[in-house]
Amino acid sequence: MRIGIPKETKEDEHRVGMTPAAADELVRRHHEVWIESSAGLGAGFADEDFEEVGATIGDRDAVWGCDLVVKVKEPQPNEFAYLRDDQVLFAYLHLAAEPRVAEALRRAGTTAVAYETVQDEDGGLPLLAPMSEVAGRLAVQAGARHLEAPAGGRGVLLPGVPGVEPASVVVLGGGTVGMNAALIALGMRAHVAIVDIDLIRLRELEVILPGRVTLVHSTRLAIRDLLTRADLVIGAVLLPGDLAPTLVTRADLPRMRKGSVIVDVSVDQGGCIETSRPTTHSQPTFVVEGVVHYAVGNMPGAVPVTATRALVSATLPYIAAIADLGLEEALDVLPALEPGVNVRDGRIVNSTVASALAAPSG
Question: Which domain, by its residues, includes 12?
Answer without folding.
Answer: 2-125+304-358
